[in-house]
Amino acid sequence: MKKLIIQIVLFVLIVVLGYFVYQSVQEPIEFRKEQRKRELVVINKLKDIRSSQVIYRQLNGSYSNNFDSLTLFLASAEIPVVKMVPDPEDTTFTKTINDTIGYIKVVDTLFQDKDYTLNELRLIPFSIDQEFEINADTIERGGVEVHVFEVKAPIEAYLRGMDAQTVINIVAKQNDIERYPGLKVGSLTEPSTDGNWE
Length: 198
Fold this sequence. Notes:
By secondary structure, the protein is an alpha+beta fold. The chain has 5 helices and 5 strands.
């Protein structure tokens, strides 16, 4: 009888230890999966902000340095709808005639299929109403003034609610290699509109 009790206790111990080993292996995998899912949502929003900034610059000459002016612009600005037809006098068919046939609101072209409103553009997904950090400036490159912008989402914001120690470790690792600990698009030091995920 004593032997049977010891066997049952050992069996239960093995099952419990096996569960903890499985969990220790599974937790980082699940964390990474959730992290990647959240990063894709943030990246898509950063791409929308980048597209908005590019159109803002085309129509205003510089980038917006705050979300108030950017969202106001997006809500009211219109871009032309252009019809291109071949020039009938050009036998090589390389010249075209551009004819503006109307205008369409910027917000209708950029945000018609989005699952957030224009006013939510500034909010980092998965954070509790934390806003993206947005800046715009001019820098000099080759004797020419170049307009630049940068929009950032710290990793602590979009990984909110996940294992805090793992997030701290990721931030420390990124700081060690002198990379921004999070996702960002654009740069205030280089004339680039690339994201740090590209």
